Input
Amino acid sequence: MPRKQKYPHLLGSKWTARQKTEGWRHFQVTNRKQEGQWVFAELVASCDPTVRLWVNAKQLKNRSLWQPGWQPLNAIAPKPEVDEFWLN
Output
């Protein structure tokens, strides 16, 4: 019986970085590799296919670093803090 594959839906998935990564925020997984117990995803910037990076697939679960799908930039931008002076 073959082993269950970790992260079976990784290939082709789209991700938005919470902070710019190599100058870009929107990436797509084009490759995966497993080294022992670790699974790595190759991310390619959607607007510049020459920008490629490998990340541990577990990092994609960290919502402070990555969000699934291609999110609009205004949805991931930090909310401005409200000055309490103006609230009173």
